[in-house]
Amino acid sequence: MFLTxxxxxxxxxxxxxxxxxxxxxxxEVERGECVFLCGASGAGKTTLLYTLAGLxxxxxxxxxxxxxxxxxxxETVQARIRxxxxxxxFQGYFLLPELxxxxxxxxxxxxxxxxxxxxxxxxLDRVGLGDRLHHLPAELSGGEQQRVAIARAxxxxxxxxxxxxxxxxxDSKTGEAIMDLLFSIVRxxxxxxxxxxxxxxxxxxxDRRLEIxxxxxxx
Length: 219
Description:
Layout: E1 3-14, E2 17-29, E3 34-38, H1 45-52, E4 60-65, E5 68-69, H2 75-85, E6 86-90, H3 101-111, H4 117-126, H5 142-154, E7 160-164, H6 172-189, E8 192-196, H7 200-203, E9 208-213, E10 216-217
Parallel strand pairs: 3-8, 3-9, 6-7, 7-8
Antiparallel strand pairs: 1-2, 1-4, 4-5, 9-10
Helix pairs in contact: 3-4, 3-5, 4-5, 5-6
């Protein structure tokens, strides 16, 4: 298996209460597989996604990415794994407003100290923005900004992409086009894809759908 999670537990303090969000979740994702994480608001799906992606350390349990333990080693080692092997696409795009589309797409390579404008341009060409390289985020539509975010996620040729409600801020037509693009790219590159969504119709397009209820996987 490309991604393996074992007995993940995570909780948060809310005043004097301790809220259990993940209650011992285990799952596996194959290389090239598209998995959707679904569930009601507050079920724990985004927390699970962030934990699988190396962004939120679990209180207990382990995550392995292609045999490498994700939370082992210091923060520098963990950051290097996230930068080199994982791509992220979020609902809010998270583009830097002062950078052009080209510069935003190139950010992961810049962080890795290997800036590659040609590769960034190729990624933007692939998502249909070859003529918008030097536009700032404010000059792009929501769908175009999400395409830049996808290009950024692809920059270091990750083995897996995590997407948190990637169509949540888009109209249905634009959202469908964005998902078509994402599916096409991950199929071409045999990249695993894990998506959080509340859209049941969208979730049926994946290879597998996992339902989270009260911090555990249903069924």
